[in-house]
Design brief:
Strand order of the largest sheet: 1-2-3-4-5-6-7-8
Largest sheet: 8 strands, parallel, barrel
CATH topology: TIM Barrel
Mean pLDDT: 90
Radius of gyration: 18 Å
Structural class: alpha/beta
Low-confidence stretches: none
Shape: globular
Strand content: 5-15%
CATH class: Alpha Beta
Distance between the termini: 22 Å
CATH architecture: Alpha-Beta Barrel
Number of domains: 1
Length: 290
């Protein structure tokens, strides 16, 4: 498959909580680094619960010579703590971050922190660091589960972009029409930054169903019924999932998506297989100007 010169293909990890998990992630990173993605991103837990783990993982990836994009969250953070993080990342030579509102930890009350919304975080990063960082923000093709309406969610996305975001990564989805409709709707509002589809490989039906329910993501009925029908046959689930997600990615790219961002779940096999099936280029070929 031929891809356009400006597409960006990237992979996301979450910071491991144990030494064993950290060792496993190093092996996974080495496997996926062979694909030469444009960057690895590292998540930031609810309420900043993985702040130190995120920083440690980011430092490791940077030391390995890879481009890394740390997540930054509004929730539970102060101006001082975010200023310190930005200074640390600048000193490490990091040029890309993912700015999110973030989630409160389970059972937490109010007190989200000094920033309420992601657009405020983007504005702060720009005030503090100028154009040093390429800022990614989140997009929700099927709309944020806490949005009051679809109209409000579209407006919130445009505010983030107008605050200084360079591009966006979507929540994962399996309904391509939702993505294309979202891109068209925000373009009609004057917002034309690249919106990269977030891709979740399928390996475990019960886990995936829980993710979809929590985030109010539509799993098309034909996919859900097929997955249910496999029961505990994990190999069949993985094989079917590879076909479904590869076809989804191929269709998105054929219709002009500016890249793909893989939610790896700290696993290498499914992301690597989809990448190879699609014939995706290494970062140097996809982004010659980078």
């Amino acid at each position: 498959m031929n891809t356009s010169a400006r597409r960006t293909f990237s992979v996301e990890f979450f910071p491991p909580k144990t030494d064993e998990g950290a060792a496993k992630l190093r092996v996974v990173r080495a496997e996926l680094a062979a694909l030469d993605p444009a960057f690895f991103s590292v998540t930031f837990g609810a309420g900043g619960s993985t702040r130190e783990g995120t920083l440690a993982t980011v430092m490791e990836i940077r030391a390995e010579g890879r481009v890394v994009a740390p997540h930054l969250s509004c929730v539970g953070q102060t101006t001082a703590s975010l200023r310190e993080l930005l200074r640390t990342y600048r000193e490490m030579g990091i040029r890309r971050v993912v700015a999110l509102r973030g989630d409160l930890p389970s059972g937490a009350g109010g007190g989200a922190g000094e920033f309420r919304y992601a657009n405020e975080l983007v504005e702060f990063i720009r005030r503090e660091t100028g154009d040093w960082f390429h800022i990614e923000v989140a997009a929700y093709p099927e709309f944020h589960p806490q949005a009051r309406s679809a109209k409000d969610d579209l407006a919130a996305f445009v505010r983030k972009v107008n605050a200084g975001a360079n591009s966006a990564i979507t929540q994962f989805f399996y309904n391509a029409d939702a993505y294309h409709r979202f891109v068209a709707d925000v373009a009609a509002l004057g917002c034309t930054v690249p919106i990269v589809p977030g891709i979740m490989p399928i390996s475990n039906y019960s886990q995936l169903s829980g993710f979809c329910e929590k985030s109010r993501i539509d799993m098309p009925r034909w996919i859900e019924e097929r997955l249910k029908g496999y029961g505990d046959d994990r190999e069949s689930i993985r094989a079917f999932g590879l076909d479904v997600v590869t076809d989804l990615c191929a269709g998105l790219l054929a219709r002009g998506a500016p890249g793909l961002h893989f939610y790896s779940m700290n696993q290498a096999t499914l992301t690597r297989t989809i990448w190879q099936r699609l014939g995706l280029p290494p970062a140097a070929a996809a982004n010659p100007a980078v």
